[in-house]
Write a structure and sequence with these properties.
About 40% of the residues lie in helices and about 20% in strands. The chain has about 350 residues and is α+β, with helices and mostly antiparallel strands. The chain folds into 4 domains: about 5-65, MutS, DNA mismatch repair protein, domain I (3-Layer(aba) Sandwich); about 70-155, Alpha-Beta Plaits, CATH 3.30.70; about 160-215, Orthogonal Bundle (DNA polymerase, domain 1), CATH 1.10.150.20; about 230-325, DNA polymerase, Y-family, little finger domain (Dna Ligase, domain 1, 2-Layer Sandwich), CATH 3.30.1490.100. Helix 12 (about 245-265) packs antiparallel against helix 13 (about 300-310). The longest helix has 21 residues, at about 245-265. The protein binds a DNA duplex (18 and 18 nucleotides) through helix 3, helix 8, strand 9, strand 11 and strand 12.
Length: about 350
DNA sequence: TCTGGGGTCCTCAATCCC
DNA sequence: TCTGGGGATTGAGGACCC
């Protein structure tokens, strides 16, 4: 979806159309969640940018608090359109999905129709990429933003992106780009030319093999209809770093209560209770402990979380505090039953409606 | 006024068990 | 009995994504 949160806001308040709109939190440490294309164009505002920087660059933009219930509602409508048109839909976050178009007579016509339906039902636009794999569909969908539809084969992509940074591939982030550059790899073509053995010795067997495949824009990740929840967490970044242990413990108790409330709602129970701490110097620390039996019991989660905090006993001011539960038991979540897309002999096209 | 919140997956080391 | 090699599990840390 294009500038999803901002676009939903524009639907709620059409009088803002054409103006730069930025969705972000209100605190001193808030970051930008979404910027409308006007805000991007005018001042280079993008998601994850500190809200304070955005306000300095573009004081006259419209700044809005996120309204997640509205985004969830809009997202559900969009996904409903996808599911009524295509059998295998993998939802990734509120504003992105992969569709298995294998076997369709005309993937392009189908996606044009779906995009039009989404627009008719929700007033929102999306960008579509159609290609031979999940990864290529995603890369391709970026080319058409906003509201575009692009079809690109792997063969054409290899030519088109030959001189681009490997960072173009989803999953290759800034750290990996830097490590690749350090061994003389700055372009996709250079990555594609390296032996698997060399990449494996630098990055380890799994990551090396993965990079070797991605360098040739090769990807066989299946489209999976639904995924099991592996963990759930709640965290808070304080407006001002916290030094007092008592205050930290008070926040931890509140976080545990919030987490348990959400876990209970989804009937999730887990064995591994963890805490996460970010200190003022940005070092991250996590501690966890596994209990005998799966639980979402407030008393147990709170007790273990407090024990972990007391054992670690932060020696610097704390910026962020979080609680997490993981190692969930099998079929606790009714919507989480795993199901995989049919393998599809003739992989004509996958598409991403990112 | 520098850097959110909610996730997934991977690596590596230690430990236990077969 | 000694030794070694695998798995599986835990725990910590980090990269990455929406």
């Amino acid at each position: 979806m294009d500038a999803f949160y901002a676009s939903v806001e524009l639907g709620k308040r059409p009088e803002l159309r054409g103006k730069p709109v930025v969705v972000c939190g209100s605190g001193p440490r808030a970051v930008v969640t979404t910027a409308s294309y006007e805000a991007r164009k005018l001042a280079g505002i993008h998601s994850a940018m500190p809200a304070a920087v955005a306000r300095r660059r573009l004081p006259d933009a419209v700044y809005l608090r996120p309204d997640f219930p509205a985004y969830r509602e809009a997202s559900a409508q969009v996904m409903e359109v996808l599911r009524r048109n295509v059998e295998t839909v993998e939802v990734v976050g509120l504003d992105e999905a992969y569709l298995d178009l294998t076997g369709l007579y005309s993937p392009k016509a189908t996606m044009r129709r779906i995009a039009a339906e989404i627009r008719a039902d929700t007033g929102l636009t999306c960008s579509v990429g159609i290609s031979e794999s999940r990864m290529l569909a995603k890369i391709t969908s970026e080319l058409g933003k906003p509201a575009g539809l692009v079809v690109l084969s792997r063969e054409d992509a290899l030519v088109r992106f030959a001189g681009d940074s490997p960072g173009l591939v989803p999953g290759i982030g800034p750290k990996t780009v830097a490590r690749l550059e350090a061994i003389g790899i700055a372009t996709l073509t250079e990555l594609a030319r390296r032996q698997a053995s060399e990449l494996e010795s630098t990055f380890g067997p799994r990551s090396g093999a993965w990079l070797h495949a991605r360098g040739r824009l090769w990807d066989e990740t299946p489209i999976t209809v639904s995924r099991e929840t592996k963990s759930q967490s709640t965290e808070i970044t304080f407006d001002v770093d916290v030094r007092q242990r008592g205050e930290l413990e008070k926040h931890l108790v509140e976080l545990a209560a919030e987490l348990c409330r959400r876990l209970a709602k989804r009937e999730l129970e887990g064995r591994t209770i963890g805490i996460k701490i970010r200190l003022d110097d940005w070092t991250n620390v996590s501690r966890s402990h596994s209990v005998e039996a799966p639980t979402n019991d407030l008393a147990v989660v709170t007790r273990v979380a407090l024990e972990l905090l007391r054992a670690y006993d932060p020696q610097r001011p704390v910026r962020l505090l979080g609680v997490r539960l993981a190692s969930f038991q099998g079929e606790a979540d009714p919507v989480a039953a795993e199901s995989e897309a049919p393998a599809g002999q003739l992989r004509l096209g996958f598409s991403s409606a990112a």
